[in-house]
Inverse folding.
């Protein structure tokens, strides 16, 4: 049975790829560009429909739609429109590739994607990565990271997390005790224990472990991770815990901090809004409203401007004020 999408972007009823392709060509032809028309079409169609528009565009005009968008648009608005055009199954692999490319590694992207995706999604990412870039994701990850952070990423890349099933209360107790001994009760920290348990147990099992951990230790697992680890490993372990508790909650928080304070982390904003628009953006909006006492729509409105803002608000959908 098809899983009900909790996305804000759905297939456009009465979709006509040719007429959309013609409207986009008209919007970009000659002097000036009709950004409004571009925004309306690209945010109002599903990713699968955008791929059909790109094919129709090439058939009708012998031109590449993405190349035309790149030459007509600029800045973050261009980045957002091009991201919307990327085939959905290629999106994560592409983001990871660029996070691992050249000098410096973008740990934020590695952490966000590898901590939040399901086992099936991770398997797909690895396959696409291999097809597109003719290398193993794991090899690139190990080549670009070090220490326990690297080991935790490698465990996640295996995409071997236990499936959700019957909960073994004995193992819940055992894991909670093991984490307590590996952290709070130990001088120094046994990072390996955290990596194994957080990287391989099922989501429903881990939720029980976190509850049991609180009972045994008097601490939330997040507090212990905060005290016992640091740097990229700490951020990754916390991201995994947050995603176990609630994936939409994790993304709501990431969006909030991408816009809070001076300056906006546009890359994170674009990555989350595009990658979750057909999956769970409605749930992310709900969590955002619940946790930050304002709507995602309101914060985007306040924090961005121009065509970039217009496009993000359309992806966001409604206002939950």
């Amino acid at each position: 049975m098809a899983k009900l999408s909790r996305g804000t972007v759905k297939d456009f009823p009465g979709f006509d790829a040719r007429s959309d392709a013609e409207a986009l060509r008209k919007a970009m032809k000659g002097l000036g560009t009709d950004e409004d028309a571009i925004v309306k079409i690209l945010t109002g169609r599903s990713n699968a429909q955008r791929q059909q528009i790109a094919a129709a565009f090439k058939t009708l005009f012998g031109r590449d739609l993405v190349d035309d968008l790149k030459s007509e648009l600029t800045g973050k608005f261009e980045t957002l429109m091009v991201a919307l055009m990327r085939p959905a199954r290629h999106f994560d692999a592409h983001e990871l590739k660029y996070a691992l490319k050249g000098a410096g590694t973008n740990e934020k992207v590695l952490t966000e994607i590898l901590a939040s995706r399901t086992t099936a999604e991770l398997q797909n990412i690895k396959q696409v990565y291999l097809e597109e870039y003719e290398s193993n994701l794991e090899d690139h990850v190990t080549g670009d990271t070090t220490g326990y952070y690297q080991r935790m990423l490698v465990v996640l890349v295996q995409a071997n997390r236990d499936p959700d099933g019957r909960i073994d209360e004995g193992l819940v107790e055992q894991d909670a005790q093991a984490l307590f001994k590996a952290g709070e009760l130990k001088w120094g920290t046994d990072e390996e224990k955290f990596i194994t348990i957080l990287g391989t147990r099922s989501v429903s099992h881990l939720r029980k472990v976190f509850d049991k951990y609180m009972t045994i230790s008097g601490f939330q697992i997040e507090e212990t991770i905060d005290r016992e680890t640091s740097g990229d490993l700490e951020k990754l372990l916390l991201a995994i815990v947050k995603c176990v508790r609630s994936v939409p909650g994790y993304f709501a928080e990431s969006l909030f901090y991408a816009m809070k304070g001076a300056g906006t982390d546009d890359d994170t904003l674009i990555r989350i809004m595009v990658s979750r628009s057909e999956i769970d953006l409605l749930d992310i909006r709900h969590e955002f409203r619940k946790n930050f006492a304002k709507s995602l729509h309101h914060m985007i409105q306040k924090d961005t401007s121009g065509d970039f803002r217009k496009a993000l608000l359309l992806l966001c959908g409604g206002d939950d004020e």
